[in-house]
Design a protein that fits this description.
Length: 392
């Protein structure tokens, strides 16, 4: 109901309730005014975030963000959930970083952190890769009944692909379409029966999210394609009235896939302001682009592949022009979607043994995608899957 990130109203509410410490998760690095306001009310703030810091940092008691200039972490590509896990491990381990204490935190929370890591599409390399492998093992052991219910665990092993396309959309749908507390209850349930009921509810919510998303996507595509000044540009910016704020980020991603360009989707948020999300293509930093136009924005934040922003209605056209001037100046040849083959295969090489030999490459995800093979001089005659053979 309040949108993403910190806001002054929420800080006031927490103050009235006697809260004296706020710990942010996956946000806060750009909440300069909100954290200053919290401090004026006697509330300490600890920021945990993985987004790119602005030149000015908030006046928080502590900031845990691997992208700070003075950060010495050997690995920096955590999701917001991964940053929190590392903080918990550091706190539990104490000054001596007792291995047993650290491992107990990792064992308890790696399943949840794996969901956040896969869901936020951060690179599945380095520590993230290990974190997800450990988390999938915990999920397979049935220690997170809510996730088991969403995934239909027991039929086959959990995988990063199943998390990305089955669990994460349902979890996200609760926050996009209604109250996110149901996702929290699902992830913390210890009762498999109750988790099953809640999982069914979340799946229904995800179906409704898809319907709303499809409707907004149709409107956004029509808006972009009907105006040559929009779709012909390097960065597409579309704005609509009454579009559901919870799905504009997904719609931006769909537009990026359709047009092969960075796209920003904005919707009315009241008071003459538009809020929205942007998605990019590999090689074009969405965060750097909107940071270049920061004087036109009320608020913004993000990272190279995705960003959120708020802009006054009267500045939307100017923002579109400034973004495209930036893109033309910095990227004479714009990055485009490419399909990279890992290698070519002879048909006789496609065997069950070949498939088994690929298993150690999992978990797959961003920066560690499933291998793509080229097979030449063949004709596709049919597709075999687990439920049978379909002639084409």
């Amino acid at each position: 109901g309040e949108g993403y990130g910190m806001n002054l109203s929420a800080v006031d509410t927490l103050s009235r309730e006697g809260v004296n410490l706020i710990i942010t998760v996956d946000n806060g690095i750009s909440a300069i005014d909100e954290i200053a306001h919290a401090g004026s009310l006697g509330i300490d703030v600890v920021v945990t975030d993985h987004h790119q810091p602005h030149p000015q940092l908030p006046n928080a008691c502590a900031i845990v963000d691997p992208h700070q200039e003075d950060d010495k972490s050997p690995f920096k590509d955590f999701s917001g959930a991964g940053v929190v896990l590392k903080l918990l491990m550091a706190l539990q381990g104490g000054e001596e970083q007792d291995p047993a204490a650290v491992n107990s935190v990792l064992d308890r929370f790696c399943g949840l952190a794996a969901v956040g890591t896969v869901g936020d599409s951060v690179p599945l390399l380095g520590e993230n890769r290990l974190l997800v492998k450990l988390g999938l093992r915990v999920i397979d052991q049935g220690r997170l009944p809510g996730l088991s219910a969403i995934l239909g665990a027991g039929r086959e092993k959990a995988s990063s692909t199943k998390l990305a396309f089955s669990a994460v959309p349902c979890i996200n749908a609760t926050g996009r379409m209604g109250s996110p507390d149901r996702a929290v209850r699902l992830l913390t349930h210890n009762d498999p029966a109750a988790a099953g009921v809640l999982a069914k509810e979340l799946k229904g919510e995800n179906t409704r999210r898809k319907e709303v998303e499809a409707e907004i996507l149709r409107s956004a595509v029509e808006l972009a394609e009907s105006d040559a000044e929009i779709w012909a540009q390097r960065v597409i910016v579309v704005a609509g009235e009454g579009w559901h704020m919870g799905v504009v980020g997904i719609v931006a991603a769909r537009l990026t896939e359709r047009f092969g360009k960075p796209c920003i989707v904005l919707t009315t948020s009241g008071g003459g302001e538009y809020r929205g999300s942007g998605r990019s293509v590999e090689g074009f930093s969405m965060f750097d682009a909107i940071n270049h136009c920061r004087e036109l924005l009320v608020q913004y934040g993000g990272h190279p592949m995705a960003a959120g922003l708020t802009v006054r209605e009267e500045n939307i056209s100017l923002l579109r022009r400034r973004l495209n001037e930036y893109a033309k100046e910095r990227y004479p040849s714009m990055p485009v979607f490419t399909l990279c083959l890992d290698c070519s295969l002879k048909p006789q090489s496609i065997t069950a043994k070949t498939v088994r030999e690929l298993l150690p490459l999992e978990p797959y995800g961003t920066k560690n995608a499933q291998p793509i093979f080229g097979i030449y001089d063949v004709t596709l005659r049919g597709v075999f899957c687990a439920i049978g053979f379909q002639r084409q």
